[in-house]
Design a protein that fits this description.
Shape: rod-shaped
Structural class: alpha+beta
Strand order of the largest sheet: 1-2-3-4
Keywords: Membrane, Transmembrane, Transmembrane helix
Largest sheet: 4 strands, antiparallel
Number of domains: 2
Helix content: 10-25%
Order of helices and strands: HHEEEEEEEEEEE
Radius of gyration: 62 Å
Strand content: 25-35%
Number of strands: 11
Length: 250
């Protein structure tokens, strides 16, 4: 079948009839347009099928954006470890307050007792007892070096009343168990206010005389102590009495 016959058959199939006096030129032009449209329609159908196959078979398949091409992993900025701040040297902890070394009030009394080159001495020092304004002094047992430096070992003082009331005041006893340090034992000691010329202690029925010295600031205050040879330091007295120059008990 020639191309002309195919054209005529196609023209008969259309709904628009041509007039009786057919113009062959017009017919050829229309035939070419028809063939062009069919080619375009066929190519479009083929493209549609290709898209459906590539996108997936069936309804409801949603087209998604193709993944982006592979990229090198993003570099994560790392912050170098911060240099630790310079630390200041540790602050020393609080130091317990220590009162200054008590200064002797009046003269220092030498007992004649020696510990190597050091002397056992006694002297009065200032004290502060809360709510007891009449207690202002205490008796210190100390040591004096050849250079004159004093070492404080033990202080005794009243805790009520007055430090000048007549009679015996606090008596100092050393520890029954020797201390761990190198401090030598402290002899039993104390002070008496009044005209005492003799002080006698009693230990298990035995009488022991004390050594006496008057305070240079107030002669009525008599310092006494028991020699360690006569009374072992730390041994408690069973009793103690003071007598005046006439031997009367005070």
């Amino acid at each position: 079948m020639t191309e002309l016959e195919q054209l005529r058959r196609a023209m008969r199939a259309t709904e628009r009839p041509y007039p009786e006096d057919l113009d062959l030129t017009v017919i050829m032009r229309d035939g070419r347009r028809l063939r062009r449209r069919r080619r375009l329609a066929g190519a479009g159908a083929a493209a549609l099928v290709t898209v459906l196959v590539a996108g997936g078979v069936g309804l409801g398949v949603r087209w998604t954006r193709p993944p982006a091409p592979d990229r090198p992993p993003a570099r994560v900025a790392t912050v170098p470890d911060a240099t630790p701040p310079a630390t200041s040297p540790p602050t020393p902890g609080p130091t317990r307050w220590r009162p200054p070394s008590p200064q002797p009030i009046g003269e220092v009394v030498d007992t004649g007792i020696r510990y190597g080159v050091d002397q056992r001495v006694f002297y009065l020092v200032a004290v502060d007892v809360p709510e007891e304004p009449r207690v202002r002094v205490g008796l210190m047992a100390g040591r004096r070096s050849p250079a004159g430096g004093l070492t404080n070992d033990m202080v005794i003082n009243d805790v009520q009343g007055s430090d000048r009331r007549p009679g015996f005041h606090e008596i100092g006893y050393d520890e029954a168990t020797p201390p761990d340090d190198d401090r030598p034992p402290v002899p039993t000691f104390g002070y008496f206010v009044g005209p005492a010329t003799r002080i006698v202690g009693t230990v298990r029925g035995r009488q022991v005389d004390a050594r006496l010295a008057r305070w240079s600031t107030d002669p009525e205050l008599v310092i006494f102590w028991f020699d360690p040879v006569d009374l072992t330091p730390g041994v408690r007295l069973d009793g103690i009495v003071a007598r005046d120059a006439a031997g009367r008990r005070l």
